[in-house]
Design a protein that fits this description.
By secondary structure, the chain is an alpha/beta fold. Helices cover 40% and strands 22% of the residues. It has one domain: P-loop containing nucleotide triphosphate hydrolases (Rossmann fold, 3-Layer(aba) Sandwich), CATH 3.40.50.300. It starts with 12 loop residues before the first strand and ends in a 10-residue tail after the last strand.
């Protein structure tokens, strides 16, 4: 996948969903690189251990020139409101870490999710949100795991409603979900 399949400037806001290692972050990066020479990554993960530190370093190296990075683990709405501008593309990677950070900080996830969905409609420039689709696997054994899966599903639904476009990435291949491909169904 050298370039995204969808036109880079077609959507002011796009939600890129997929499973772990599906290619969604790479898709978002390539989309932003095709859209604007100035790009900002809002990173929501924090390097809590050696593996995560290495993962963050690898992602930073993959981005290369033309990127600015800020780290914002919880106050994503404020960061987006402050940083969005027409001449720069933003990638938020990722909403799943942001959600986990809110949960650990005991923030009201429903309120924060709603605030994020509301600000999307008012942003000044193009933004690609990366998020995990966690509802396709087995049912988690613990109440916290089930709660997190449910929170993530609700957040993804809210963001899908707020964003102009939604793409599902699997095996590095994008599938447009919104706007939905033209399908005619004959009933009766």
């Amino acid at each position: 996948m050298d370039r995204p399949a969808s036109p880079p400037l077609r959507y002011r806001s796009l939600l890129a969903l997929g499973g772990a290692r599906s290619g969604k972050s790479r898709y978002a990066r390539l989309l932003a690189e095709a859209a604007r020479p100035a790009r900002l990554l809002i990173a929501t993960a924090w390097p809590g251990d050696d593996e995560m530190t290495a993962r963050i370093a690898r992602h930073r190296a993959e981005r290369g020139e033309g990127w600015t990075t800020i780290e914002e683990q919880r106050d994503l709405v404020d960061a987006l409101s402050r940083e969005a501008r027409q001449e720069r593309a933003i990638v938020v990677d990722c909403l799943t870490f942001w959600l986990a950070n809110l949960a650990f900080a005991q923030r009201d996830i429903a309120i924060e999710s709603r605030r994020l969905a509301e600000v999307v409609r008012a942003l000044a420039g193009p933004v690609v949100f990366v998020s995990n689709e966690v509802g396709l696997g087995i049912v988690p054994q613990t109440p916290l795991g089930r709660d997190f899966r449910d929170w993530q599903g609700r957040l993804n639904q809210e963001m899908a409603g707020a964003c102009d476009g939604v793409v599902f990435v699997a095996a590095g291949l994008p599938l447009m979900l919104k706007p939905a491909p033209g399908v005619t169904i004959a009933l009766g």
